[in-house]
Amino acid sequence: MTGNSEVTSPVVVLVHGAFAESASWNGVLSRLRGRGIDARAVANPLRSLAGDAAYVRDVVASLGRPVLLVGHSYGGMVITEAAAGNDAVVGLVYVSAFVPATGQSALELSNSEPGSTLGDALTSYPLATGGDEFAIRLDAFPAQFAADVPEAEARLMAATQRPVTEAALTAGLVADEPGWARVPSWHVFGSADRNIPPAVLRAGAARAVARGTVELPGASHAVAVSHPDAVAAVVLDAVAGVTGGELDDPDRGEPTP
C-alpha cells in the first residue's frame, strides 16, 4: 500500500455475531490499528435481521468514507443485507460467518449440512416484547463456542455473551441482490467450528466466488479470538484488494486448495 493509504483505505467496520460482543474483536482490532488501518468494532443489536442491518447501514453512512464490512457468524447475515445496494461498502470479509442467498435465514443455513451441536447447548426464555431469546449455557459455552481459547478467557466470554432473538435467526435475507454479489469478499473460518458446520462455510465462500478463502485447521467458532493474527491478515488482504495496494503479513493462514 502506498503512502497515501490514509486517503485511499476504507474504514474497517467489525460486526460481531450472536453470543459474542464487540470486545471479541479486540485482538484483530489492535493488529489492524497497529498497521495503520482505521478500524472499529460496533455493537450488533441482535434483535432482528432487518433492524440489525439498518443499524449497520446507519454506522456506514455516518462515516462518510468507503467501508469494508467484516462480519462474524450471524454478523455475516447482517453485513450481507447492509451491503445490498450500498455504494459506500466496497468489500466484505466473512469470519466464520453465514453467506446467505435471498430468502435464506441463519437457522436454515446452519441446518443445511450436518455437524452443528449448537442446538443442544442453547437455553431460551420469553421476552416481554414477544418471542424468545437464545443464549449458550454458561457450562457449555467454552467447548461449544471457543474450544481453542484458554478456558478462563472462554468463561469470561460466556459471561459477557450477547443473546440473540429467535426472530433474528429465522428471518430470511430480504435483499434481491446480496452484498456479496456486488462487491468482492474474503473468507476465514476454522475446520473445527461447532456452531456453523465447516461445509456450510466452504459452500458460502464458493457461492460468493471468494477472492480469498482461509481455513484454519482445528480452529473453533471463536476464530477471531483464538487466531487474531490470521484473521487480521485476511482483513489486510481485503483492504489491499479493494485499494489496489499490497499488504504483507507473515502470519496469515493457509488458503484452502
Automatic annotation (TrEMBL):
InterPro entries: AB_hydrolase_1 (IPR000073), AB_hydrolase_fold (IPR029058), Sec-Metab_Biosynth_Hydrolase (IPR052897). GO terms for molecular function: catalytic activity. SUPFAM superfamilies: alpha/beta-Hydrolases. It holds the Pfam family Abhydrolase_6. Gene3D superfamilies: alpha/beta hydrolase. Residues 12-234 form the AB hydrolase-1 domain. It comes from the Bacteria. PANTHER family: AB HYDROLASE-1 DOMAIN-CONTAINING PROTEIN-RELATED, ESTERASE_LIPASE_THIOESTERASE DOMAIN-CONTAINING PROTEIN. This is Pimeloyl-ACP methyl ester carboxylesterase.
